[in-house]
Amino acid sequence: MDSRTTPPAAALVTGAASGIGQYCAEALSARGTRVAAVDVDQARLHRVAETSPLITPFVCDVSDEHQVQTSVKAAQGAVGPFDRVIHCAGVARLGRLREQSSADIERVWRVNYLGTVHVARATITAMTDRGAGDLMVMASIAGWVPVPSGGAYGASKAAVMDAEPPPCGTPDVWRLPCSAPCWNAS
Prior knowledge:
Rossmann fold; seven-stranded mixed β-sheet; 5 helices; disordered C terminus
């Protein structure tokens, strides 16, 4: 299967209740992909799921490793093994670091960086064991170029972009123009 042109049979999309994640979930389902849609916003997530019978919602906070592990296991049971994982969940609490609360800074890091780690660790090994699958991680230009009042957001996205591929033997690594590091398990 050429993962660039053939729709995946099953996919996991985080941040699926809005923005890029919502677009990805809806676009994949329109192409016939069974989508496990993950987000912390239950009401909006269920509205997205109502747009297609191929979208199954899973309420999950990606900053919580246990929730991610539990949701991924349930999602694989519902839609099948993932051919593609698109991790879009993130928060952008902007402001100068000296003006941001410690709680806001920690939340940005837990969602943006640790959420990426949790999703990668929960999904990539199964794809590697099957010898197929893609993990796409949404980053930001703010991870490369300082943004006024970027605060913790730019630093968290730089950490995502500088992260090594998961340590499970994935052979290919490349970066897409949309600033999304991508690991291919095939």
